[in-house]
């Protein structure tokens, strides 16, 4: 046999053996580096020892008051501000004059149109007599009559413009901001004053989807301001949100008559309270401690240092907590936090 062929074969076998050895060595190193979860190691959790509680029959939801109406008033026509009849803080009634713009030029134009109308009316009367006696052509009477109608329309236009120079309050309220002074120039769309109506308030809360069914459109609820807790008000639900906000809660708005003297101001905080019909006793635990589906809710109990799954019955949810009425007993320890790695039979530890 050719020695060169034998050496080549031996070299190839040695190369393959070295490659196989390297792969085996790399596999052993990789295996050593992989984390092997020790199922016997105790999982650190937070837990709660259960006590039977009387479920409070009053639910409270916090919110804030806002003005029923608020608007910035501007002129519909341009002109110099001749007078400002109110100051910031003044209470005004609907229809009260707030600002008077200069209308002297418009009034002169109105007088000119009045003179024009007077002359045209005289011409119409004279041409009517002449036309009846066929002293003039009827077309001349028609032109004069049309001229009179045009002048009267012009008069109405000027009267409307003059009326718009007197700016009045669109509703009753308090002047909360003043943007102009006597001598300033007013233009359409430029705010002159701001009026806020707080005789009637809007009170808005945000509730979770679980509490949304507690409120009905048109029903009345007790609303109190934080600074006047002893003066409860009646709030009528006028809006129930149909779309959740970024936080996953739904807005509910109430209309409330303010305390006499408009003591509650826009921006103040308050709360709405209602009696919960599902009154009784149960175990109150965080809703986050419940796993499984809505038809088969479960919790983890800690028994003899191990996690044990237990089916429960949820009677109601109160904000971020759930009331359990069946499946657990007083003195049981339920896991409330640290559920990610938890499994049936796992060793657990808690403080």
Name the overall outline: elongated
State which percent range the strand residues make up.
35-45%
Tell me the distance between the termini: 79 Å
Strand order of the largest sheet: 4-11-14-13-12-15
CATH class of the largest domain: Mainly Beta
CATH architecture of the largest domain: Beta Barrel
Low-confidence stretches: none
What is the total tally of β strands? 23
Any idea of the CATH topology of the largest domain? Elongation Factor Tu (Ef-tu), domain 3
The radius of gyration is: 42 Å
Write the CATH homologous superfamily of the largest domain: Efflux pump adaptor protein, beta barrel domain
Give a verbal description of the structure:
- The chain has three helices and 23 strands.
- The chain has a six-stranded antiparallel β-barrel with strand order 4-11-14-13-12-15. Strands 3-16-21-20 form a four-stranded antiparallel sheet, with no helix packed on it.
- The radius of gyration is 42 Å and the shape is elongated.
- It folds into four domains: 1-36; 44-56 and 279-349, conserved putative lor/sdh protein from methanococcus maripaludis s2 fold (Beta Barrel), CATH 2.40.420; 60-68 and 197-275, Elongation Factor Tu (Ef-tu), domain 3; 103-164.
- It starts with a helix and ends with a strand.
- Helix 2 (104-132) packs antiparallel against helix 3.
- It is α+β, with helices and mostly antiparallel strands.
């Amino acid at each position: 046999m050719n020695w060169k062929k034998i050496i080549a074969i031996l070299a190839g076998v040695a190369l393959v053996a070295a490659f196989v050895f390297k792969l085996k060595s790399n596999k052993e190193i990789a295996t050593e580096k992989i984390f092997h979860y020790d199922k016997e190691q105790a999982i650190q959790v937070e837990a709660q020892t259960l006590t039977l509680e009387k479920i409070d029959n009053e639910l409270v939801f916090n919110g804030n008051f806002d003005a029923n109406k608020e608007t910035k008033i501007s002129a519909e026509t341009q002109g110099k501000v001749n007078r400002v009849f109110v100051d910031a803080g003044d209470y005004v009634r609907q229809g009260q004059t707030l600002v008077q713009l200069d209308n002297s030029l418009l009034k002169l134009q109105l007088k000119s149109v009045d003179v024009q109308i007077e002359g045209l009316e005289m011409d119409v009367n004279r041409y009517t007599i002449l036309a009846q006696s066929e002293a003039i052509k009827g077309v001349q009477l028609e032109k004069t009559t049309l001229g009179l109608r045009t002048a009267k329309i012009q008069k109405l236009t000027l009267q409307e413009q003059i009326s718009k120079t007197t700016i009045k309050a669109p509703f009753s309220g308090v002047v909360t901001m003043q943007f102009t002074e006597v001598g300033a120039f007013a233009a359409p769309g430029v705010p002159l004053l701001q009026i806020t109506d707080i005789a009637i308030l809007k009170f808005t809360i945000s509730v979770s989807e679980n509490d949304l069914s507690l409120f009905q459109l048109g029903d009345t609820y007790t609303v109190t301001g934080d600074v006047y807790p002893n003066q409860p008000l009646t709030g009528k639900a006028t809006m129930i949100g149909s779309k959740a906000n970024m936080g996953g809660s739904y807005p509910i708005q109430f209309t409330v008559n303010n305390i006499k003297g408009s003591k509650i101001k826009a921006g103040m905080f308050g709360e709405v309270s209602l009696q919960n019909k599902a009154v009784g006793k149960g175990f109150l635990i965080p809703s986050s401690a419940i796993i499984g589906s809505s038809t088969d809710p479960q919790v983890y109990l800690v028994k003899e240092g191990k996690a044990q799954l237990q089916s429960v019955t949820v009677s109601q949810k109160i904000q971020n907590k759930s009331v359990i009425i069946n499946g657990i007993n007083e003195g049981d320890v339920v896991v409330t936090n640290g559920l990610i790695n938890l499994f049936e039979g796992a060793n657990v530890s808690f403080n």
